[in-house]
Amino acid sequence: MNKFIFQTKINFKRIVFRNKAFFFFDMLLPIVFYILYTKILVSNVPASYLKAWNEDYLVSMMIYACMLGGIITTANTLLEDEMSNFKLFVTLSPLSNFQYYGSMAIVLITLNLVSSIALTAVAMIVNHVNISIGLLFELISINLLGTILLILIGVLISFAKKPNTVNLLTNLIVFPLAILSGLWWPINIMPTWLQNIGKVMPTYQLSVIDKNILHQTTQHIGPFINLLIWSLIIFLILFIVNKIQKEKGLVTQ
Question: What is the spatial distance between Cα 52 and Cα 138, in angstroms, rounded to a whole number?
Fold first, then answer.
């Protein structure tokens, strides 16, 4: 346990304190989007709808922040570990592969927790969004669970092992996924066929769960099943890709 805690501390220093870009991409960017879409680009939005929009967009940006941290930060950090031979150091140390990824997950989930709290604080100050401590705790808890799926996607992307390929894949996944899921603007303004695709995405289903919590409406089992299915699919792909790379000698564990 002491070794695991020590590794987690090292990862905090490597990912947060030595990577200033995190504060821009993983925290500041969703906040900028939130202010932009709730204070500037709302001139034609009816006042009666604005309150719900400010609340719903807070949920969207929470999930978007989780995507940035869960997918982009995970993929790039693991790739950097591979290229700097830090992963080799872990392989030669008593720390297991499971502990290595577990420690990384704790750091990334904590960063997403900080992002969610920062976004909520901005929403309360800028738009006077009123969320009880209990509801906020439920929202953050659900999003942190959803972050695990996003981290799995980031791990999968890192297996590409080339910086250009990893950057391309993260951009091809994160930004289209955010758009299709209705995180940047309402999904109902898209063509029907795009809506049908977007509603299958795990991030859309996560937003449905969050909005039901926020507005205290009835939850349905469908979104939870969707997230479970996506998690199983990504985990299965991870297992297959890792096995193939082991057979080819591309991974050490």
Answer: 18
Sign of torsion over alpha carbons 79, 80, 84, 86:
negative
CA 77 remoteness from chain centre: 14
Domain residue spans of the chain:
2-247
d(CA 244, CA 253): 12
Q: What is the pLDDT of residues 81-91, one digit of tens each?
A: 777 766 655 55
**pLDDT tens digits, residue range 148-161?**
899 899 989 988 88
Rounded to whole angstroms, the Cα distance separating 98 from 165 reads: 25
- Asked if 35 and 126 touch (Cβ cutoff 8 Å), the reply is yes
Helical packing angle, 163-180 and 74-83, nearest 10°: 170
For residue 83, what are its two tokens?
């290229």
